[in-house]
Design goal:
CATH architecture of the domain at 35-104: Roll
Radius of gyration: 19 Å
Number of helices: 2
Structural class: alpha+beta
CATH class of the domain at 35-104: Alpha Beta
Strand order of the largest sheet: 2-1-5-3-4
Distance between the termini: 66 Å
Shape: elongated
Largest sheet: 5 strands, mixed
Order of helices and strands: HEEHEEE
């Protein structure tokens, strides 16, 4: 029989000790990271605490803005759970554990 430590807080921890798993049971552990990663052309790239309902613009402000405010940027979000990357705007909501990638747009000059 294996033992697997699972961290729980408060009253949930006591309730967890009373659970008995049997063959064919399933255990679901939701993915929670607690931060987003902001990378690329921002003043202070890095990890920022996740706040539900916040958008790309919120996290760019937390990173003190773009490297060059006059620069056109391409915004993408990489979803770590689905491992997919998609284009975003400043109004796109960011999920827990997402990575926001900020890249300078290429100009035709």
């Amino acid at each position: 029989m294996g033992r697997y430590p699972i961290s729980l807080q408060g009253d949930d921890a006591a309730a967890f000790r009373n659970i008995k798993l049997t063959p064919m049971d399933s255990v679901y552990v939701p993915v929670r990271f607690g931060y987003i990663r902001l990378t690329g052309s921002v003043q202070n790239p890095g990890l920022y605490p996740f706040q539900p309902g916040k958008d790309v613009a919120f996290y760019v402000r937390r990173a003190a803005g773009y490297l060059d405010e006059s620069m056109a940027v391409r915004l993408e979000i990489h979803d770590r759970v689905s491992n997919q990357t998609f284009e975003a705007t400043e109004q796109t909501s960011v999920g827990d554990g997402d990575e926001v990638l900020v890249s300078p747009m290429e100009t035709g000059e």
